[in-house]
Every structure is written in C-alpha cells, then in structure tokens.
Fold this sequence. Notes:
With 18 residues, this protein is mostly loops. Helices cover 0% and strands 0% of the residues. It has no helices and no strands.
Amino acid sequence: xxxxxxxxxxxxxxxxxx
Length: 18
C-alpha cells in the first residue's frame, strides 16, 4: 500500500497509504 494515487482521494488522511 502507499503506491495508489487514486486511493488518496478516499482515504481519511488523504495520504493514500491505507
């Protein structure tokens, strides 16, 4: 995890590292 740019859109912290 952590290499997903589009995930940073829905992650709570907006880091995309969940």
